Amino acid sequence: MFDMDRRHFLSAATGLGGAAILMPAFQNSALGGEITVAGSSKTSPTAEIGKLPRVKQKMVAPPMLPTHEQVAAGGPRVVEVTFVIEEKKMKIDDDGTEVWALTFNGSVPGPMIVVHEGDYVELTLVNPASSVMEHNIDFHAATGALGGGALTMVQPGEQVVLRWKAVKPGVFVYHCAPGGIMIPYHVTHGMNGAVMVLPRGGLVDGNGKPIRYDRAYYIGEQDFYIPRNEQGEFKTYETAGENMSDALAVMKSLTPTHVVFNGKAGALTGKGAMKAKVGETVLIIHAQANRDTRPHLIGGHGDHVWETGSFRDTPATGLETWFIRGGSAGAAIYTFRQPGLYVYLNHNLIEAVMLGAAAHFVVEGQWNNDLMTQVREPSKIIT
């Protein structure tokens, strides 16, 4: 029923509204050669880009971010990154519930890319021969060709190189988008991540004052739709894609079985809890590729919040809960003032407590009684 030639899905009517979308014809486009889009010829500025310094950015697993400077040193660069697609079994809760995850570099979410406005991202996307499915990548931060999705479709055993210019500062989602029903299937099986494009001068508040952070963490919220058997138990499958028919039926209910941070319920608690110290300013990037979410830090606030992810906008201040639209990422800054355990969660409390969308910050330092103190311990009621 869902068999299709996905490599050419963009040249015909698709399930995204029925409008025909022209597939760009290109030759060596990722390397700066001649590019033809919808019948008009454009030549990529190969010579100028070739003069720019090139750096390789080492990808790291979430919630960490790659090493980066908050303020750009010098002019634009070409930042080289590599994503290797991995289709793998993952356990998504402590009960051992399994999913055949579709991943970039083996993690859910995929790794964070960090560049500055004006830099070029040059991505090598590798789909190993061991994969079952074809894949691509759509960068919400990029301009044209469906975010790169039209230029990155790779079959098992193929790789492709895409270069795009970071022209808009902010935090943005990326995800696999092979076409039709395979778009939500891939996204809800973990194939999404985020990019941060910093202003060249760094972050600023509403008055233009610089904002600097001591630590940064990246939280990818993931909704999973795991089919059940007749006994109500979660089903398992031997190969990637084997659950297609069952999973699509659960997905159509719009009711996830799991809503988790960084691939598994409890992934960012216990040994996985995020660390900080009193007085440190922490940047929290929160991405959700498919559903709306409402991040909240219990015991803290969003000192500065870019709900829509756009660093060109003035950040909101002093928020208790903020809103991240499905298919987007947002950023919040908080300076911790008290030590102890902080719970960071999706403030749909059903999803946080019952489905898994919760994380912990463990903060070291000295307690400040002026901010909070227990005046009297619990005792019998005085009449």
How is this fold's topology laid out?
Blueprint (H helix, E strand, L loop, with lengths): L24 E2 L7 E4 L2 E4 L2 H5 L3 E3 L21 E14 L6 E7 L8 E4 L3 E8 L10 E2 L18 E8 L4 E6 L6 H6 L4 E7 L4 E2 L5 E2 L3 E10 L19 H9 L5 E4 L12 E4 L3 E8 L6 E4 L3 E5 L9 E4 L8 E8 L4 E7 L2 H6 L3 E7 L19
Parallel strand pairs: 4-5, 5-8, 7-12, 15-18, 17-24
Antiparallel strand pairs: 1-2, 2-3, 5-6, 8-10, 9-11, 11-12, 13-14, 15-16, 18-22, 19-23, 20-21, 20-22, 23-24
- N- to C-terminal distance: 73 Å
Instruction: Give the helix level as a range of percent.
Output: under 10%
* Number of domain units: 2
Widest β-sheet, arrangement of strands: 16-15-18-22-20-21
Instruction: Give the assembly state of these chains.
Output: single chain
Outline the structure in words.
The structure is a single chain. The chain has 383 residues and is mainly beta. It folds into 2 domains: 149 residues, Sandwich (Immunoglobulin-like); 150 residues, Sandwich (Immunoglobulin-like). Helices cover 7% and strands 35% of the residues. The chain is built from 4 helices and 24 strands. The chain has a 6-stranded mixed sheet with strand order 16-15-18-22-20-21. Strands 4, 5, 6, 8 and 10 form a 5-stranded mixed sheet that branches. It has a 4-stranded mixed sheet with strand order 7-12-11-9, with no helix packed on it. It is flat, with a radius of gyration of 22 Å. The relative contact order is 0.13.
